[in-house]
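Checklist before submission:
- one chain only
- standard amino acids only
- sequence pasted in full

Submission:
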Amino acid sequence: MKKILVINGPNINMLGIREPGVYGSVTLADIEKELSSLAKELKIEIEFFQSNHEGEIVEKIQQSLKKVDGIIINPAAFTHTSVAIRDALAAVNIPAIEVHISNVYSREEFRHKSFTAGVCIGQIAGLGIDGYLFALKKLSALLSAAKLSSTH
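Returned file contents:
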């Protein structure tokens, strides 16, 4: 069974409370519930990780080497600042899709630059929780086709 790791960065644990005009009323638990349901349907094992600390995210990515087949990552604010997370994703060479709930390109200019997108196979922004679901479907399809499996 293929395994996907879903990583969420800083403040994603505050969804539902934080800036509902930007992020809506969805919570991290809602996202995890929807992804778990879809993963079951797709016959994929799924693991969730959230941290407000850059180093913990880097360590989780490094620990995923040869343990997961794909990564869905919402680096949140670290998207625009973290060379360390970018380098960890590049080092493990696990197919990853970057996801953002809001459309970062319609927001402040500093959010328009992603350090991590260049080492991901794709980026989804502005589609809310659906972005995570689309990312899971895409990784599932690619892994099923054995085009991007990193552990086998």
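Reviewer check: The CA atoms of residues 53 and 148 lie 29 Å apart.
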